[in-house]
Amino acid sequence: ARRTAPGAARAAAQAAAPGAMSAGRGLPAPLRAGAPAPELALPDQRGEVVRLADLRGRRVVVWFYPQADTPGCAREGCNFRDLAADYAARGAAILGVSCDPPAEVAAFAAKYRIDYPLLSDADGAAARAWGAWDPANPGRALRNTYVVGPDGRIERALAGVNPKTHPRALLGELPAGAGPAGQPAAGAEEGSA
Q1: 31 and 19 in contact (C-beta within 8 Å)?
Q2: Which residue has the higher pLDDT, 159 or 183?
Q3: Catalytic-role residue among 55, 62, 73, 88
Q4: Is 73 a catalytic site residue?
Q5: What is the pLDDT at residue 2?
Q6: What predicted TM-score, i.e. pTM, was given to this entire model?
Q7: Which residues contact 89 (CB under 8 A, 6 or more apart)?
Q8: Among 19, 33, 29, 20, residue whose Cα is nearest residue 153
Q9: Which residue has the higher pLDDT, 10 or 37?
Q10: Helices (DSSP H) in the chain: which residue ranges?
């Protein structure tokens, strides 16, 4: 019988199972396209709990960021803010998630006038479930973005994105189409974006 190199079987199992645990760290592997999106139910900058399940039927961009009010995170957050109407025209909601406490998330949102939901994952449970926990910097999320389809499954999983260019590049990759609840989006005609 042929022997498998140590760890090869575990690596193969992880590759075959999206959301499987990462070797040796007890952390979920990064989510992959086609995997069901883990639930999110976290407080936003206003103290209101936002649930991913309440957005079912819409495309949702979930972007994890390392720390509120740092240069890269501010740039990425403001870029999503400036493009929020364009995302809405493509039927997509935006949710930002960090492991910062609610007060820091609220201050970040206020300082940069970010009005889409910024969620506080203070215990890091969501970052772990989504494969966005940074094991090298406990208490911080990786700069990962996930596009959740209207059916609740991951359509895109992007790791280590560029905060300066990512929001516009991702917008260009989203299909034009239906707005909330499957209604045609205002401005979704060709050439409007």
Answers
A1: yes
A2: 159
A3: 73
A4: yes
A5: 36
A6: 0.78
A7: 176, 179, 185, 186, 187, 188, 192, 193
A8: 33
A9: 37
A10: 8-16, 71-82, 84-89, 102-111, 125-129, 166-173
